Amino acid sequence: METSSGTLSRRGFLGVVGTALIAPHVSLAGRATQPARSATGDASPGFRFCLNTATIRSHKLPLPDEIDLAARVGYDGIEPWTREIEEFLQQGGKLADLRKRLQDANVRVESAIGFPTWMVDDDAQRARGFDQMKREMEWIAELGGNRIAAPPAGAYNPPVLDLKRVAERYAQLLEIGQSMGVTPQLEIWGGSANLSRLSEAAFVLVECGHPDACALFDVFHIYRGGSRPEGLRVFNGAALHVFHMNDYPGDPPREKIRDSDRVFPGEGVAPLTQILRILRDIGFHGALSLELFNPQYAKMEVETVARRGLESMREAVKKALSAEMG
Q1: What is the pLDDT of residue 62?
Q2: Strand pairing partners for 217?
Q3: d(Cα 164, Cα 1) in Å, to the nearest integer?
Q4: Residue 105 vs residues 56, 64, 67, 139: alpha-carbon distances, Å
Q5: In the predicted model, is pLDDT for residue 153 greater than 60?
Q6: Which domains are assigned to the chain?
Q7: End-to-end CA distance of the chain
């Protein structure tokens, strides 16, 4: 990365992030290290369980059927892709009807996944990205949701962008979201040339200076980008609303692993126990959202995939938190 006055080096922004976030971490985490306990003495961190519809996309269910499936299996929420919402509308569907279906099923829209090019340097492309984000935030608001992903779409490949400019653009996005009641969550992609690491996200969150700044992290992307899970400790759990859950095998190596290699939580080598304990300790009370892209799961019955995913997340949480109880 360039180190001229116009672009901050990795070493430079790590220094800034360390000063800004690590110091207050002690008191933040200290207040959260004792989890609430139920009447039976079990740790009760307040995690919700969510189905990211990428997990069952290959089964090609209409969005209303995905909502019904999530409710039937026992998920608290759903995280649809905005392409599905668009397809629903193109086929004559009404968002008011979909919202009622969600309410009747007692399933909340935890977040949504879209790919607007909001952070790129090209002015015209970025303007289109902002327009797309506005449109998709309107959909989410109509469905009763209040969060949407803001990934580094359009900036996956080089050049490496100036993180100060990214922070400015994210602040603009947050202002728009604030007016619409939908918060864009800064998402990292582990294989991206931009926003691939926890430290880069931390810099943008601090630099943007907006009270609604928040992040969307993922077990796979933390690993793929080369971040250490311990880095999660510098974040306030209140700035994390949704966390993508999955696992990954020990082979292929980190630099070559792909989204399609993701597996159900507990079936790989990811340090899930460590990650879940850290989330609990920093005060995360959001949704664990199952996001998988494994083509092998397309061969399974869709309800089997959804149910196995929910059970695997619950088991991972139980293993992580009940093990401390002895």
Answers
A1: 97
A2: 243
A3: 13
A4: 19, 11, 8, 19
A5: yes
A6: 10-325 (3.20.20.150)
A7: 47
